[in-house]
Amino acid sequence: MAYIDDPQTQQANLKYIRNSMNEPLLEKGRELELARRWRDKKDERALHELVKSYTRLVVSVASRFRNYGLPMGDIIQEGNIGLMQAADRFDPERDVRFSTYATWWIRAAIQDYVLRNWSIVRTGTTAAHKSLFFNYRRLRSKIEQASEREGLTDKGRKEIAKNLKVKVKDVETMENRLAASDQSLNAQIGQDGDEEWQNMLADERPNPEEIALHVVDGEARSRWLNKALGSLTDREQTIIRQRHLGQDVVTLEALGQELGVSKERVRQLEARAMEKLKVSIEDQVEVGPDMFAGAL
Predict the structure, then answer these.
(1) Max alpha carbon distance in the chain (Å)?
(2) Cα–Cα distance between 274 and 251 in angstroms, integer?
(3) Whether 230 contacts 241, CB under 8 Å
(4) How far apart, in whole angstroms, are the C-alpha atoms of residue 91 and residue 109?
(5) CA 202, CA 189: separation in Å to the nearest integer?
(6) How far apart are CA 278 and CA 272, in angstroms?
(7) Total Cβ atoms within 10 A of residue 42
(8) Taking a C-beta distance cutoff of 8 angstroms, is the pair 271, 278 a contact?
(9) How do residues 241-256 score in pLDDT, each as one tens digit?
(10) pTM score, two decimals?
(11) Which of 118-132, 173-187, 251-265 has the highest mean pLDDT?
(12) Which of 147, 115, 150 lies closest to 131, judged by CA?
């Protein structure tokens, strides 16, 4: 679904495009002179002339991305950012025209913008997935023209996957993604419907009954644990509390120093205490109905 600007924005975009196309082209010598003045003296007037002369290049590149459902004015402005980056990094001593160098930066800036904003669903971050995103329509059109039929067949999907070095599954996912568009959760269901799509979403949070049961269960488990701890000696309780019930786990060696026993002895006491706890809690769970009677 293409984005449609309001009339005032459309007029502003057209005015900018016309002005860009009327900017005079630079000769190679003048181009290099301006680039050197900016590089060596940070001459802003030179930078302004250099960049302004190639805004038509930004418009040309931006027009290739007009079918992604994004505001054309924003796409052009992102391209201008890429143009500024190119001007800042351009080396006039290399035998390369500024337009050739700037095209890469303009396209990269626009592609990055499209990937960030085209859809709330990510389209992929790898170089291969980006290539698939930006080349899918072109390759699909080429295949459809060759086969004289609309739509892709399995053979066509395999051809695209081979051409772009991606999996066929990735091509299928991109095909479905590009065929759809993001929908507002506030959109009405049906033409005359009073319900919005967001009202049909399931609330995955616990309901009041589940919350109450969780509280009761938590209280019961606390009673079981407190009673089980009462069956341990003072030293065993110290070990269990510091090894399992505190925020920071105390090492066996540190506990051994505190209790005046070896590290191995602490490990033995811990194992014995854990077994006592297990037996005590199992005994309490077996009489579960009585345990819950006072809480419900």
Answers:
(1) 95
(2) 16
(3) no
(4) 19
(5) 16
(6) 10
(7) 9
(8) no
(9) 888 887 778 888 888 8
(10) 0.47
(11) 251-265
(12) 115
